[in-house]
């Protein structure tokens, strides 16, 4: 298992690949203008507005989750979290609904508009790359759910609806097997239940991407990675030269690493005068987007460490900090979901995985929501960008304009922590 050793912020969703197919030339990296849509059906004005709102929410949630950690790597799928919260909001009323949609930044959109926007990113195939999403709901046998909510979940979110007994080990095993199968066997942590759990909602995502121009394995070498002042570790550093979409200032370097097909890209942010944590605390969405729009085609060389991250987090504290509080209380109003009694949210658990190597990326994530009674500069000389200290990275669907996965790579452990 490779080192987990960076400080990064991701926005996208990826999956690692084997060394198959023909290697692309370095010129392919910059063949597409930075920041522009790269294919197929035009994105509607509503979809673009929803995507921008989701991206802002993603940055806010990443900032909150990052602040809860202490120098550990962070990776998560904002799309999965936002998608489930959109579905939950469709079954909420009153203050409960207002707080959820306000935190998501989608208070100006109807449930139907949000569902339509989500439908268009449930599954995307772009050449050798794919982004797959799956949703499921498990309901305690004796709990009555309104047919209108079931229709919305099945029609607009393509969710599987299952009746289960959460006290039955076989039924719980089915839930765990769904998570394992939907995440390419990369996430196997057993779902956490309480005696009062009445319903579980889950959204799983899987990205598989191959670099447009893979890094040559023969160029990968041992190199120091500066964790903090005076503290270094040895990592496996990839190296590749060619043309890249690139931006630099006195305080920041940004580079785009596209996947084949041009729809998906990883964007690496390398702060030069501050830590990754400091950069994340101060950067706003408009500023982040401005950096992406400022990328220019440049000749140069990129050195990026291979890395692998596993991450688990209880999202309730972060979502509370973003203003969602009523949904977790006994005053929660989910009367558009339940027939006789409205149950509060008692769990929002997120687990994610990412593996980046010379050939591409593999990433998977799952969000589980439990509801029940008990809580639990200028273009001049060729540049050299050596990513040898904490950095941020984003993975973006440039057609849907969405941040599919985001994270922060800060852990210096020699092995990724087990989730078993």
Would you kindly provide a brief summary of this structure?
The protein has helices at 45-68, 78-90, 94-104, 111-119, 147-157, 169-182, 276-282, 285-293, 316-321, and strands at 74-76, 123-126, 129-140, 159-164, 197-210, 221-228, 231-248, 252-258, 264-271, 296-305, 307-314, 345-356, 360-372, 383-386, 392-397, 402-408. It has 420 residues and is an alpha+beta fold.
Describe what you observe in this structure:
It is a single chain. This protein has about 425 residues and is an alpha+beta fold. The protein is about 25% helix and about 35% strand. The chain has helices at about 45-70, 80-90, 95-105, 110-120, 145-155, 170-180, 275-280, 285-295, 315-320; strands at about 75, 125, 130-140, 160-165, 195-210, 220-230, 230-250, 250-260, 265-270, 295-305, 305-315, 345-355, 360-370, 385, 390-395, 400-410. Strands 1, 6, 7, 8, 9, 10, 14, 15 and 16 form a 9-stranded mixed β-sheet that branches.
Number of helices: 9
- SSE order: HEHHHEEHEHEEEEEHHEEHEEEEE
Q: How would you describe the shape?
A: elongated
Distance between the termini: 16 Å
Mean pLDDT: 82
Work out the helicity level.
10-25%
Number of strands: 16
- Enumerate the spans where pLDDT stays under 50 for 5 or more consecutive residues: 1-40, 374-379, 412-420
Structural class by helix and strand composition: alpha+beta
- Tell me about the biggest sheet? 9 strands, mixed
* Rg (C-alpha, Å): 21 Å
In percent, how much strand structure appears in the residues?
Answer: 25-35%
